[in-house]
Amino acid sequence: EPEVTQTPSHQVTQMGQEVILRCVPISNHLYFYWYRQILGQKVEFLVSFYNNEISEKSEIFDDQFSVERPDGSNFTLKIRSTKLEDSAMYFCASNHRLQADTEAFFGQGTRLTVV
Amino acid sequence: AQRVTQPEKLLSVFKGAPVELKCNYSYSGSPELFWYVQYSRQRLQLLLRHISRESIKGFTADLNKGETSFHLKKPFAQEEDSAMYYCALSTRDDKIIFGKGTRLHILP
Questions:
Q1: Is the pLDDT of residue B4 over 50?
Q2: Chain B within 8 Å of A97 (Cβ-Cβ)?
Q3: Which value, to the nearest 10 degrees, does the dihedral of the CA atoms of residues A33, A93, B100, B2 take?
Q4: A35-89 pLDDT, tens digit each
């Protein structure tokens, strides 16, 4: 069964450092997403991406965040200058919206710990 | 406002007893509703969606538009059902809004 893969599974970084979280979506999917889940809280939408541009972003997705699809397979989330409150589980997801199926396939997540 | 509410953070149920995980939503339009499950140390995965009206692993969920609810039910709980369950709503613009999740703990 195809799956979305995320690397690394756990990233520890110092406050102020840049981090890049990587995702490989399912190959024929067209829509890509990043979500995050702060410990003990709900999963929150960050950004959706289609046709090489952001289609929607939440208020959480400020100038510190950026996304990129550099090579047609990877989908990355960059946090320019991490803050303690960026510590969370980050989930990548993808789906093929041209079908009636609206299911999004999620990766296993990257746990980001900012110290 | 678009919102998904799961009122219970933790639900403990004895093995063999019925399970009901509550979910209420707020959405102006026709919602697409889902239940996602996250087993320990695994990825979030889709359990079921209201449009398919299917039963997965013995779980069912009926969309009640009058009560704006999409409760997840199973008549007889099994130990392997212990997991985190998220109710989710898909909006017209492809955003997925999750509830806070309910941890289901099946007692032996």
A1: yes
A2: yes
A3: 40
A4: 998 876 767 889 989 888 998 888 999 999 999 998 878 999 999 999 999 999 8
CB B48 within 8 A of CB B54: yes
What tokens does B38 get? 């996250």
Distance CA B82, CA B80 (A): 5
Which residues in chain B are closer than 8 Å to A35, comparing Cβ atoms?
96, 98
Six-digit token string for A22: 């990587």
B100 contact residues in A (CB cutoff 8 A): 41-42
Amino acid at the residue B106: I
What would the two tokens of residue B15 be?
């093995």
Using a CB–CB cutoff of 8 Å, tell me whether A48 touches chain B. Answer: yes
**Interchain proximity B43–A93, CB inside 8 Å:** no
CA distance A56 to A61: 10
Report the side by side order of strands in the sheet with B60-61. Answer: B19-21, B72-74, B60-61
Does the beta carbon of A69 lie under 8 angstroms from any beta carbon of chain B? no
For chain A, the three-class secondary structure string (H helix, E strand, C coil) is: CCCCEEECCEEEECCCCCEEEEEECCCCCCEEEEEEECCCCCEEEEEEEECCEEEEECCCCCCCEEEECCCCCCEEEEECCCCHHHCEEEEEEEECCCCCCCCCEECCCEEEEEC
